[in-house]
């Protein structure tokens, strides 16, 4: 699928492997020679993100800096600077069963927003990733039954609202404000994917001033291989 899609930049989340454990078939993906990986320190099989690029970035950073020492060890953010924009690959923490990690999640949201605003002050930003939140009721199949569940709590949804209020745009919902059943994640249980009982947890969020460059945002729901599906952001930059 990656070869057919032929992206200029490929962002991966929840890779669950260290740099040395990246599979050789991923290392050898044609057209994506510049590869940058972040993994959880001392926690193999946990978290992790990658960013693969056709052209070499001007600069690459890992984590979100001193503002978030709590989460940077988890390997959740890789940022590549290109001439016209920053591309951020991010895997936002899950609030956990029983919301046991809701408070750390909310601390991450605040620190991450501050980080994105600092980037945006330099040049436009494209954030690609599993943000672990369904923002509105239209973004999951059963909103009423999930109001107290991770990914749809009022606090997490308000965090995403704050992101939009800080000058960023949910590209898919901007283009398709009424689209229903547009999900990117389905649990493996109960044939959820076949029945399209899902959530939209994966986003391409961009600086408002990139809207003129936004051509489309597609959810590739037929692509198998994970409980999430890929999304594709198409920008003319």
Automatic annotation (TrEMBL):
The positions annotated as site (Interaction with DNA substrate) read 228
What Enzyme Commission number(s) appear in the record? 3.1.11.2, 3.1.21.-
Q: Which reaction does it catalyse?
A: Exonucleolytic cleavage in the 3'- to 5'-direction to yield nucleoside 5'-phosphates
Give the UniProt subcellular location, in the record's own words. Answer: Nucleus; Cytoplasm; Mitochondrion
Show the Pfam families listed in the entry.
Answer: Exo_endo_phos
Keywords from the named record: Cytoplasm, DNA damage, DNA repair, DNA-binding, Endonuclease, Hydrolase, Lyase, Magnesium, Manganese, Metal-binding, Mitochondrion, Nuclease, Nucleus
* Source domain of life: Eukaryota
Catalytic residues at 91, 130, 228
Annotated site residue numbers, Transition state stabilizer: 132
- Any note on cofactor binding? Probably binds two magnesium or manganese ions per subunit.
Query: So where does Mg(2+) get bound?
Result: 14, 130, 132, 227-228
- GO molecular function per UniProt: DNA binding; DNA-(apurinic or apyrimidinic site) endonuclease activity; double-stranded DNA 3'-5' DNA exonuclease activity; lyase activity; metal ion binding; phosphoric diester hydrolase activity
Name a GO CC annotation attached to this entry.
Answer: mitochondrion
Q: Does the keyword Cell wall biogenesis/degradation apply?
A: no
- What are the Endonuclease/exonuclease/phosphatase domain coordinates in residue numbering? 1-228
Q: Which co-factors does it depend on?
A: Mn(2+); Mg(2+)
Q: Does the keyword Magnesium apply?
A: yes
Q: Which CDD domains match?
A: Ape1-like_AP-endo
Q: Where is this site: Important for catalytic activity?
A: 202
For biological process, the GO terms are:
base-excision repair
Q: Which PROSITE patterns match?
A: AP_NUCLEASE_F1_1 (PS00726), AP_NUCLEASE_F1_2 (PS00727), AP_NUCLEASE_F1_3 (PS00728), AP_NUCLEASE_F1_4 (PS51435)
* Similarity comment text for this entry: Belongs to the DNA repair enzymes AP/ExoA family.
Query: Which PANTHER family is this protein grouped with?
Result: AP ENDONUCLEASE, DNA-(APURINIC OR APYRIMIDINIC SITE) ENDONUCLEASE
What this chain does, per the record? Initiates repair of AP sites in DNA by catalyzing hydrolytic incision of the phosphodiester backbone immediately adjacent to the damage, generating a single-strand break with 5'-deoxyribose phosphate and 3'-hydroxyl ends.
- Name of the protein described by the UniProt record: DNA repair nuclease/redox regulator APEX1
Query: What is the organism field in this record?
Result: Callaeas wilsoni (North Island kokako)
